[in-house]
């Protein structure tokens, strides 16, 4: 027997039993972005490898170890996108969206990283992201964080997450902090793990992001970046905190919060949870005021965040907030049919019903099957109402209405009255 071909490890199929939950989550995210008047942008999954080396940073885990890169037939080095911000900046520059504009954008789609697959961390994963360009003041930082808070609130997750906040300052601040951090860590080099020793000479700030408990213990007395902030960066951060206080958004200051990508400056934040084990970060983002210039544009302030869809769904499941079966039902109305004449009549009637109530989902039973088996399928579909069309109903030019989720008596309805009746339903 020929061995079947399976999906690549860490790249998962999302089956029909799960897609309703995904659609539910994605629709909430999209609706919130629209309420803030952000616009959708879409860009390719494959980009030039150079984009991520210049944008994300060559001395990052993503570029060093995790990118899916290959050489195409023209000899160009291409990569599956490991994150979306660099691609978004490339698209904004390529299509001149910054001229006289301050675009506020959202996008949704798959990203790819060659990591060790585990719960909450996959090789193909999906992100919802928001980016805002051209605004330097702290009010846009506050709006971005407030939007992330509203997304989590609308998903029913706000009480299960905590906002952590920090400022990385500008280039001068990071350079001064880098030297102080080096002076502190060099005498402790032998106590650092292999990754931290490598980062010590390449990008010591990344050591602050270490998950190794032994390394984290060594960092308790390390120089803190907030102590090196310029007056402008400090004022920006204080104003952001004032806005968040005004909005009633609680936060914790975390001086070791640096994020894993090189392009971040000034404000960085993470929404974290204690419900998912090691994969604690649910949503994260911050400012990247140098990235547009780094990728060939004029100096442009920018800020954004990303949420992992898989991790959101895991958190919903962990805290018992997955949508109910009625929310993610396959159908609202299921039509049971008996006999060829009823099937021919149903074909004609159901399309007219779909015209009359375009927002409702009507599933017609197809194929053979007893009424008992059809009812089982109707129940499994999550339908709230079953309409029965059988020889007895055809003789009366009617359908029988049976309620599947409510304690109401079934009744018969003339075919001529079905459309008007359907239009009165509210699901």
Explain the overall architecture:
This protein has 427 residues and is of the alpha+beta class. 37% of the residues lie in helices and 20% in strands. The chain contains 15 helices and 16 strands. It has helices at 19-35, 49-55, 61-66, 85-94, 138-154, 171-185, 194-202, 213-218, 231-247, 291-294, 309-318, 340-356, 371-381, 391-395, 415-422, and strands at 39-40, 46-48, 69-71, 77-80, 104-112, 124-133, 162-167, 252-253, 265-272, 281-287, 302-308, 333-337, 362-364, 385-389, 398-403, 411-414.
The side-by-side strand order for the widest beta sheet comes to: 1-5-6-11-10-9-7-8
Q: Name the structural class.
A: alpha+beta
Number of strand segments: 16
Spans of at least 5 consecutive residues with low confidence: none
Q: What's the mean pLDDT score?
A: 89
Q: Report the sheet-strand fraction.
A: 15-25%
Helix content: 25-40%
The major β-sheet equals: 8 strands, mixed
Amino- and carboxy-terminal Cα gap: 49 Å
The gross shape turns out to be: elongated
Number of helices: 15
CA-based gyration radius: 27 Å
